[in-house]
Amino acid sequence: MATATLSKKGNTLTVRLECEIDHHTAKDIRERIDRSLDSERPGELILDFSKVSFMDSSGIGLIIGRVERASSIGAAVTVTGASGMIRKLLSMSGIEKLKSLRIV
Questions:
Q1: pTM over 0.70
Q2: In terms of residue numbers, what domain contains 9?
């Protein structure tokens, strides 16, 4: 089961992901984040991957889509806590070239 805890502090919406991200879980997570982006309209979206044990290409799509959605409301996206395996996947995808995305 996908677990994503969303919290807002100031102008920052933080999503703490605690799951494997694949095509089964990405849809639910995407919908929850998008609803919060639309209602909260933060200046920054932080995606915390520190508890993500596995991610496939669905996770790349999840990030790209949230970058596009966040950019449409003027928000930047930061990915934090990605493991070495997930960082390698992100690097191979070329996702770090997206202007509104930081990977720390």
A1: yes
A2: 4-103
